[in-house]
Amino acid sequence: MRIVNKNYILKGSVNTNIVLISDIHYYNKKDIKHLNKVLERIKKIKPSYICISGDLTDISYIDDEKYLIDWLKKLSKICKVIISIGNHELYIRKEVNIYGINYTLFDKIEAIKNVYVLDNKSVILDGINFIGITLPIDYYYNAKKSIDDDKYFKSIEGNKKYYNILLCHSPININNSELLKEKNIDLVLCGHMHGGMVPRIFRKFIKNIGFISPEKTLFPKIAYGHILKDNTNILISSGITVVSHINRFRLLKELFSSEIVDIKIKM
After folding, report:
1. Count of domains for the chain
2. How confident is the model over 108-121, as a mean pLDDT?
3. Interstrand relation of 91-93 and 98-99 (parallel, antiparallel or unpaired)
4. CATH number of the domain to which 262 belongs
């Protein structure tokens, strides 16, 4: 699978360079060859921060976890790495509806120097307040419906003193929430939508919508790219692994590209 860079320049109260990657869906050591290519591409960008907005792993309990940890150690030598939790990290056995985060694995990941796992918590680094929200599994099940945003997003806490970046795996309904304004969120970094399963060749003509969402919603309006909501920028990456290992349509993966999002924020 080839790798492409997507570049954005945003106005903000800080000067920094952030790389966003999402939906890595690490499954076993066979994935490392491609992830090393991603790592080398990120090295050339020389970011100040790397944000991974969910679905680092394909399921909670993975094979060959030491290879993923070693890869994250290499990534953390480039710069600080901030990780939030997605829906796939909640799947222990999706087929029988058993869910839960593998905290043993994430404790090992958070023990890596320069790596921060934000499971419903925040960290302030060099004047930037990074916030990671873990959406519960029922959020993803209810994503097709009109949901009560406050139920899911009330834990978000921005701070007027800092530039506030929210890592929120799914963008569904987040752009409808007035909490972004109320909580002083400047930038939201998302994944989950896999670009709406739109091959990159069509992205010249299709801006934010997709063909289908992970929730099987046809033509989702919020699936990819840059959306400005009041004064909040929302960026949605199509991901590193566009079709996960547990997806029956994995043979379609060659139609898509891995995406590295290069975000320059300038005062």
Report:
1. 1
2. 97
3. antiparallel
4. 3.60.21.10
**Distance between CA atoms of residues 198 and 109, nearest Å:** 32
Contact 24, 52 (CB under 8 A): yes
Average the pLDDT over 228-255 and give the result: 76
Residue 139 is encoded by which pair of tokens?
Answer: 């959020």
Q: Using DSSP bridges, classify how beta strands 3-11 and 128-133 pair: parallel, antiparallel or unpaired.
A: unpaired
CB 51, CB 68: distance < 8 Å: no
- The 10 Å CB-count burial string (b at 16+, else e) for 13-47 is eeebebbbbbbbbbbebebbeebeebbebbeebeb
Q: What is the pTM of this model?
A: 0.92
Q: How far apart are CA 134 and CA 229, in angstroms?
A: 21
CB 38 within 8 A of CB 257: no
Burial class (CB in 10 A: 0-12, 13-18, 19+), 251: exposed
Q: Tell me which of 27-41, 141-155, 191-205 is least confident.
A: 141-155
CA distance 37 to 35: 5
Residue 146: predicted pLDDT: 47
Residue type (1 letter), 78: I
Residue 53 domain boundaries: 3-266
